[in-house]
Amino acid sequence: MEKKTLKKKLVLKRKVRNFISRTLITVIIVLIALIVVKNNPSFKNIIIENVYEKSFKFTKAKKFYQKYFGDILTLDSISKEEQAVFSEKLNYEKVEKYNNGVALTVNKNYMVPILESGVVVFMGEKEGYGSTVVVEQIDGITVSYGNISTNNLKLYDYIEKGNLLGEANDEKLYLIFQKDGKFLDYKKYI
Asked: What pTM does this model have?
């Protein structure tokens, strides 16, 4: 009995040390980056241009982090007790080409599922699409969901495939698929 308890304590200590090490390395990298940015104006302009003026690619940052530091410690890795109630696939009655994407005819007040896990990178109005949520998926594809209302969603939230994104404002749901600035054929993704 004592060996099992001792083994559990050692495993816990190793996990804590690993977490502290990752945190310290991340803090050191951030501090070095801040010092370089402060002392080098041209580097600061590069950061402003690539982070604020262009679309920041969260999937590339995640892959870089995983390559050098391992998986990100998330709350769901600690506790699996909470499960999503909503788990749906995309259902629609009719598909029509619309601008650079597609217009789906759905039921009134249709509950829109998340097509693939990712990060919310835009929330707001887009001309021709109404209230829009843009998600950068973990596969690097950016999806715009148009004509949708959301309640508990915030910018830069991580969202998971199959969970509820929001509700269609009427019987139309607009989707646009992009990768590296190029529009993709919707048929592969819905």
From this structure: 0.60
